Amino acid sequence: MRKAFEITVLGTSSATPTKYSHPSAHFVRLEGTYLLLDCGEGTQRQLARYGLRTLRISHVFITHLHGDHYFGLPGLISSMALFGRTEPLIVVGPAALEGIITSILKESDAHLPYLLKFIKTKTDAIHTLIENDKFAVVTVPLQHRMPCTGFLIKELGPERHLNVDACIKYGVPVDQYEAIKRGADCLSPQKGLIPNQHISLAGHPNRTLAYITDTVYDTRLVEILRNVNLLYHEATFLHELKERAAETFHTTALQAGQIAKAAGVKELLIGHFSARYNDTSLLLEEAQSVFANTQEAVEGRTYSVL
Fold it and tell me: Number of folded domains in the chain?
């Protein structure tokens, strides 16, 4: 069975909360790993509302320091302490974020029973922030009114399955099994070089989730996003307001569809909608006019990375 890789939308609104929507926040589950992308106001309430595992979150990734993307973080950090968290929490974001959070915790007399670790993002180049045996996270520089990064979350791990019968037949040493699942050939003392395709079976290729929010329309993203499985891209305005989008360094729904089409992504998820739109289906229709396999981000809904 294939590993679960999915994103649950917690906030779809840009700039401010509305009666029916919250600022940016997204919960990612990758087979036992739980990540949070942005943490706007009300995020911890949304996590509780949808029954998500708040204490299992290992990393929080903040794209930039506009309040609708991180004002919920101090409260979340404090609540994790009250809930008895003991595991370290890694917070990834702009350099100034550590000082802001540290000051708030100090002045509010908050005492954390867990380690809070900060990793600073680089906003001028593509950079691998985190890499382990399960996933890697890569920053994507975005063009916004202040330094901002998107993130690529890349699934890592074996892409092939062992052909157990063949391994027994060829006398493959057990200590080579993991390398074989990752595509390596086998060097056997008895049989010599055994090609990988003789001792393994085709599995599932690793998947990538791209999180691109708060950026002007930028065709330089196309190659970076080439063939990703699921692209979350902001779609703040309808294209009739393309001048307003450019002024505020945001993207229209049509432009999000154009990026997805040019990059050859498998699926597009649009969000970060302006509060002026009571009917966000218009944004969905506009993106779909360019890229048919587009979905609208709906709060509380989970989308699989396929």
Answer: 2
